[in-house]
Amino acid sequence: YLSYISRDTLYPTQKYKTIPTLTANSNKFVRKSLFPCISPTEMVSVSIVTFHTSLSQLECCLKSLDSRCVSRIYIIDNSRSDHLHKWCSDKPKVTYLPNDNTGYGAGHNTAIRLELPLPGEYHLVMNSDVEFFPEIIKDIEQYMDSHPSTGMLQPKMLGTNGDKQYSCRRLPTPADVFIRRFFPEGWFRGIRERYLLKHLDQERTWNIPYHQGSFMFIRKKALMDTGIFDERFFMYPEDIDLTRRIHRNYLTVYWPGATIVHHHEAASYKSLRMLGIHIVNMIRYFNKWGWIHDPERDLFNNQIEGNITYTQASKPELKLPPPRQLTKIPALFFRRTSGFSRLAKRYLFITSQQRSFTSEYLPSLS
C-alpha cells in the first residue's frame, strides 16, 4: 500500500526516488528519528480494535509499529476470533484482549484502563487500516515533548492513492451530518468544504476541535484529566466527543510534519446496518451536546474561522448552561409516540442527568 505514496512525500527532507510527488510546501520539517527511545517514560502504547479484521491488514499495520518507541500493542478483538488469538500469541509486544462487541470506544477503553497506570507519556488510538513508516512515532513524540500544552495530535492523512483526507474538521451541526450522508456529493459544496476545513492551509499546524478516530496520538495526562471514550456511543461520534472534551483544556493539533496512509472503508456508506448504527449514535451525540443550541461548538468553530493557530490558541472560558430536559424535535416525537417510547429511551436518549458535563458520568478510569 505504501508504494502508492512516495517516501519523499512522507519525509520531505530525505532524497528518495519518488513515485508521485504530492506536496512541496511541508519541506521545513527535519527528522530526528535516528535517536532511539531509552527512558520508559518515552515509550508509546497502542490500541487497535478489530472486528473480523483480516490478518493481512493487521500484518501491515503492525509493520508500521515496528519502532523502538512502541512498548505495548493491545489488540482488542470484538469478534473473539480464535485464529486471531493464535496469531497474536507469536507477536512481540502484542497483548490480545478478547472483548464483547460493545463498540469502538468501549474497546479502546479496555486497553486504556490497563495502560494509564503503566510508564509512558502517550497512547496511540488507531485503526487497523492505517499505515506509515515506523519513524513517524518518534517524530510525533518529539513534537509532543516540545509542546506540553498539546493533548492530542493527528498528522496529515492521505488515501490509498495519495489523495488528501480531511480528517480534522469543525464540530458538526445536524445539517453538516445530514448533508454529507444523504445528499449527492456535488450538492451543498460550500457547506461540505467548510465543514471539512478545506479552505485551511494543509501545510500549517492548526488547533482543531474534531479529530477522526483512525489515528489519535494522545497524552495520557489529558485522558486522566478529561476522561476516556464515552461508551454510550457504539460507533462514529465517540471521536468527536473525546476530542472536544480534550480541546477544552489542551490543544488538539493537526500537524503536517508527519504523514500517514488511511485505507478508509466508509462502512456506513455500504451497509444499511452500519447506516442505522451511524444515525442512532449521531442522535445520541446531539442529544448530549445540543441540536441547535451548543455554545461550546459555536465557540470552538468560531476560533477556527478566526484563523487562530496553535501558537495563538488559548484555553476558552465558557459558562455552560445547567443540564436541562431534552425538548428537541426527535425527543418530542418519540416521547409522545407510545409505541416507540421504551425503545427511544433505551437507544436514543441521554437523560438530563447523563447530559451533565461533569466527569462523574463518564466511564471509570479504573
Structural account:
- The protein has 366 residues and is α/β, with parallel strands linked by helices.
- Helices cover 34% and strands 17% of the residues.
- The chain has 13 helices and 12 strands.
- The longest helix is centred in the C-terminal third of the chain and has 18 residues, at 272-289.
- The radius of gyration is 20 Å and the shape is globular.
- 38% of the residues are buried.
- The model is unreliable at 1-38, 307-341 and 351-361 (pLDDT under 50).
Would you spell out the secondary-structure blueprint of this structure?
Layout: H1 7-10, E1 44-50, H2 55-64, E2 70-77, H3 82-89, E3 94-98, H4 104-115, E4 122-126, E5 130-131, H5 135-146, E6 150-158, E7 164-165, E8 168-169, H6 174-182, H7 189-195, E9 206-207, E10 210-211, E11 215-219, H8 220-226, H9 238-247, E12 251-262, H10 272-289, H11 295-305, H12 329-335, H13 338-347
Parallel strand pairs: 1-2, 1-4, 2-3, 6-12
Antiparallel strand pairs: 4-11, 5-12, 6-7, 6-11, 8-10, 9-12
Output the structural class: alpha/beta
Total helical segments: 13
C-alpha-based Rg, rounded: 20 Å
Number of strands: 12
Distance between the termini: 38 Å
Query: Mind describing the biggest β-sheet?
Result: 10 strands, mixed
TL;DR?
The protein has 366 residues and is of the alpha/beta class.
Keywords:
two-stranded antiparallel ribbon; alpha/beta; globular; 366 residues
